[in-house]
Design a protein that fits this description.
This protein is an all-alpha fold and about 100 residues long. It has five helices and no strands. Bound molecules: zinc ion. The site of zinc ion (ZN) has 6 residues, from α2. InterPro entries: ComFB.
Length: about 100
């Protein structure tokens, strides 16, 4: 379980690291904390299952995250999430 938790933390960090870069392609997207959280959560949910349920150790995860394909998948997931949040922003709704 610890390995899985470490994995999702690393994945979440990788998505957070890529968020600002992805937002640069969407100058009209909202950048408030609520929207950033929504975008990150949506992107994480849409990433391939092999990231979520993997029993691989963190060393393998690090290698995986450094692969270009993985970074592209993170970017694609972020772009989809940004478009989704942009079309239906939650920041106007009460929590
Ligand atoms: Zn917002």
């Amino acid at each position: 379980m610890d390995g899985e938790r470490a994995f999702s933390n690393r994945m979440e960090q990788a998505v957070r690291d890529a968020l600002d870069e992805a937002l640069a392609y969407h100058p009209d997207a909202c950048r408030c904390e609520r929207c950033r959280r929504d975008i990150t959560a949506l992107a994480l949910r849409s990433l391939p299952a092999r990231y979520a349920g993997s029993s691989a150790g963190t060393v393998i995860v690090d290698v995986e995250l450094q692969r270009l394909q993985s970074r592209l998948e993170i970017f694609k997931a972020l772009h989809r999430a940004i478009l989704e949040v942009k079309s239906r922003p939650h920041h106007a709704r009460p929590d």
